[in-house]
Amino acid sequence: MTGSRPTSSGLRALRPEAFGADPAGERLARIRRSPHFKDGVFVNPGGAARTRPSGSAVDFAKVYFDKEARPRRSPTGTVPVHATTLADLARPPATGLRLTWMGHSSVLAEIDGRRVLFDPVWGERCSPFPFAGPRRLHPVPLPLAALGPVDVVVISHDHYDHLDMPTIKALAGTDTLFAVPLGVGAHLERWGAAASRLRELDWHEETEVGGLTLTATPARHFCGRGLRNTQHTLWASWVVAGAEHRIYHSGDTGYFDGFRDIGAAHGPFDATMIQIGAYSEFWPDIHMTPEEGVRAHLDLQGGAPQGVLLPIHWATFNLAPHPWAEPGEWTLAAGEAVGQSVAVPEPGAPFEPGGELPTHPWWRGVSQTLARSWPAPRIALTTTRGLDLVED
Fold first, then answer.
1. 175-to-90, 153, 172, 184 alpha-carbon distances in Å
2. In the chain, where are the structural domains located?
3. Phi-psi region for residue 211, left (φ > 0), alpha (ψ -120 to 50) or beta?
4. pLDDT tens-digit series, residues 81-136
5. 326, 341, 338, 340: which is closest to 378 by C-alpha?
6. Domain at 20-389: CATH code
């Protein structure tokens, strides 16, 4: 009928498949029973977090679209990418633990004889559309099919730069299991993952996969893939513990006191993978600066420099106003200030936290000189707070 309004089924047909699916049925009932779900939404530790840019839209636009600063937000040349081969990954790690950063927050962890793949994003754009949205600044180090068998895929939350539909569809055709925060399983089932292969966890819940214990731990962030942010899927950081090694993946998070609790309950860790990019003063509650990332690592380790910090969530996509190379430079500086080991491999270069660490700042050859230096004039290390800024 001319002029008639679309039916609800018609509206669903217009919704891009990449938006995923909303939780329903028993999954939604379980969400509503969660102690972290209140007044119709999941809530953050430490209270509400600002999930949209603070300040005026004009102020944000001035910073984000600044013509002089914008060139610094991308590499000036070809990003060096290690040509990861099957031979790199076929040989068991000598120490029992090997990490391969594939870019952004995607990491293959080979731990105590098992293979764990965190936040795999092999797509060209982190967007629901193939023609728009942030595009990769470097290629993936190897094709997904060349990665080899994976025991479990771990997802931190459902944002596009962490949960990529084409990647999940490809992995759904393998024998891998999926460990995801509460509610995220609805997306995976829509994209072909069998419900029997999902391990869907609330914070502080755990599951066992091949002798590894995976625990969903709190983070300070938010969720959403569509135009409406219903807060009906949870976000999480993750602890993976084997017989010999323990590792931690932060997902996306703002800095909060809960890192100390996670470290006390599950640490210390042989390695942490910590988000240190896409930060801004416009959204300080949901992403960490490099200094906060080092502080979080120290909190997780009981306050003392130990284990290895692998910076993640940077260099692959342009998601914030800061210069492209700044997260790497500032994380190295903050780590050096407190004697903390920081690994900065080229994308795709495997390394063992218990062996020789990659510490060469590879980005300097393809980035503009930073206009500002790490903004910590002096650093004091305490056993309870990690890094404390001390003003001159």
1. 18, 11, 8, 19
2. 20-389
3. left
4. 998 887 889 899 999 999 999 999 999 999 999 999 999 999 999 999 999 999 99
5. 338
6. 3.60.15.10
